[in-house]
Amino acid sequence: MRVLVVGGGAREDALSWRIAASPSCEAVFAAPGNAGTATRGENWSVAATDGKELAKKCVDERVDLAVLGPETAIAAGVGDRLRKAGIAVFGPNRSAGRLESSKIFAKRFMQRHDIRSARASVVHSLDGALRALDRHGDAVAIKADGLASGKGVVVARDRASAQATLGAWYGSGHVPGGGNDVLIEELLEGRELSFFALSDGSQLVPLAAACDYKRAGDGDTGPNTGGMGAYSPPRGFPENFEQVVREQILEPVRRGLAEEEEPYIGVLYCGLMWTREGPSVIEFNARFGDPEAQVLLPRIEGDFARLLHATATGRLDPRAIVLSGDACVGVVLATGDYPASATPLRGVAAPRVKDGCWIFWGNSTRRDGWIDAAGGRVLTLCAMGNDVERARARAYDGVHALAAELGACDLTYRTDIAAR
């Protein structure tokens, strides 16, 4: 099987790595790829959102399966283009992808199909937003409607913070992701859980779960980021949490998609808050998360490429989903100015990695044996162990060694990923 991975971040590096290890995989390509994907296949100099050129290249290279990594490719309709060209695609079309690309669409979908989520108001102006605060109280989540690279959500725990965020967004005319549409939600209390399921257009089958860390600093302090680390499997949740999610979240989603004649193909990420009443949906993503993918994929056993192809072609066999009993922990190393900005790194030597660890590169390229990284989240270091504690110890041993080797790069990371 010849497989294209669309995208160029650490998630796509992890996908390329796991697909290349599949017995059914003959060749793996990435577009545009990065320093990691370049070590196991061919990178194409094509943007992840250029559906027309990607379709042409897929036909020329006899690609059997395209795997959509980033949300931008889904929102740009790349899956639609590739399917028209006769390529099997793991990833939803643009219409179904609105579960992620529009927070308001997703909220209304959940309301139509009685899927538990926070009470919310849709606003289009600063005046409307301030009136919504009167209805929802002082502690709220403020969400830009469109895609904003993980930076379109602000948790405001008091009215002053909420007013400051809304004033900045509407006063500057720059709501993250564009437009004027904003969702204001009551703030849910509980523990967050990332739950992933595969859908072949009719079934919605549980895959795996993880916990990720979105805040920049230890103890969940600092601004939101695209994710500073993750671990899998989660701990501290009810033993039957998968069954509860299946019954209360996945089955209503499946029924809702069927009723609205909206075939969904690929992976559905359910960002959940586990409250006293059970799981409540914070958000949907229409693709694997980053950094969750980096800790989920090492735990998936069997022929991963074949599993994705079966999902893409409507032939998913739930028995083909087999997870390792081991745990995996991933720690993101980012440039010191992230998330406020991203200082590029030039001419980085490919680092040595401790035994039992591996790294997945973010946006980067290889040049004359050296690596140039775009900055921000530079790479994710992952390790596995018999349990979370062993995986965590191994991961941080690797992080410390890597940070010492790359000391001149001024990289930062959280020290509390997967800590109890």
In short:
By secondary structure, the protein is an alpha+beta fold.
Protein described:
By secondary structure, the protein is of the alpha+beta class. It has 4 domains: 2-92, Rossmann fold; 120-186, Dna Ligase, domain 1, CATH 3.30.1490.20; 191-323, ATP-grasp fold, B domain (D-amino Acid Aminotransferase, Chain A, domain 1); 327-412, Phosphoribosylglycinamide synthetase, C-terminal domain (Glycinamide Ribonucleotide Synthetase, Chain A, domain 4, Alpha-Beta Complex), CATH 3.90.600. The chain is 29% helix and 31% strand. The protein contains 12 helices and 25 strands. The chain has helices at residues 10-20, 51-60, 71-75, 78-84, 98-101, 103-112, 126-136, 159-172, 241-259, 292-296, 304-312, 388-405, and strands spanning 2-7, 27-32, 42-43, 65-68, 88-90, 120-123, 140-144, 153-156, 182-186, 191-200, 204-212, 215-217, 221-224, 229-232, 265-275, 278-285, 300-301, 322-323, 327-335, 345-349, 357-361, 364-367, 370-373, 377-385, 411-412. Strands 10, 11, 14, 15, 16, 19, 21, 24 and 25 form a 9-stranded antiparallel sheet that branches. Strand 10 (191-200) and strand 11 form a beta hairpin. Helix 2 runs parallel beside helix 4 (78-84) and helix 7 packs antiparallel against helix 8. The longest helix has 19 residues, at 241-259.
